[in-house]
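Quick start: what a row looks like.
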Amino acid sequence: MEGPDEGPLRDVVAALARSRAAAQVVDAQGRLAWVSEQMLLLSGAGPDTDVGLGHHVDEVLERPVWQQLLTPGAVETLRGELYPRLADPAATTPLWVLAIDLQIGARQRSVGMLGVTLRNAEGSSLGAVLIYAPLLPARVLALVSEGDEAMFTRMADLSEPAQRPAAVLFADIDGSGPLSRRLPTPVYFELIRGVTTAFDALVARHGGIVGKHAGDGASAYFLTEGHGSDSDAALAALRTVQELSEAVAGVVADLAETGVELRPEDCRMNVGAHWGSDLFIGQVVTGGRLEVTALGDEVNECARVEQVASGGQRLVTKALVERLDPDAAEALGLRPRTLTYRLLADLAVGHGSADGKVERDAGPLAVHDLR
């Protein structure tokens, strides 16, 4: 958001904008002078939202956008700390830190607010900078920073669960039971960690969102709203399917170089991919995890498709392939008009489906093996 175009505050705003911090700048008269892009995103403000630029903080804090973000206690804390510092900056410490509560989505979050009073050469007030940051230890922040920023941004956009069309992908290692018994446990753990990392990186590269991991299994979603069209979302999912085997083969090769007796054919990935027209997708946030999950019949169907896949099969449904437009199909090297499909129920015979779940949940699905 545009800030002061002249004067000392201009340089302050420019520096804050480069830092990508969630921040506000207040001038010496207590008027809101600038709000960072990250602060706008945090508050849920849109391009036309009235955030109160140029108005006194007293009035600004009554704006709906800030009433929704700041708890009543946070509002009173800000007023009590900010006004004395603007009135007499020489009599107060130039730097202060507060813990305040924000209402983000449906959850209340404690954050740290770093305040800095600004003075000119004569000591009079220029205003103040308010910077909001998570109350997390440095080692926890370092752990979070290991993740893919674009992926985290896509996950953050799903704070409100809603119906969203998306491609769904499930994958796991074929014959992981015998493999886990054959390999030393530390080596098997290293293999699973490498496969998981390779899967996540591939999903991130193609603009998807990683879902749940369970043992050697993984899932991912490719949303239409993140790719611009159903065709592009399907293209991203199918690219991931096509490239997964090579990515996992690289993990196996790295382990083999350390002396582990492991070949690419020992670690083949079974894949199922499907299309969901109205999946209910959103965040699941608890004290121990942050993930995105999807619910809907097509998710269950995709799980059954992957369950049937064996020997490294890459089973994709007709519903997914037919979301591709001609250019997307050509980019994948596919000719949809010449593909043939089989019913999942026919493939399920002899694949451990004695309980009938495959036939019941997804038997009529038409699938094609992309190998």
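That is the whole record. The chain has two domains: 8-135, 148-369. The domain at 148-369 is CATH 3.30.70.1230 (Alpha-Beta Plaits).
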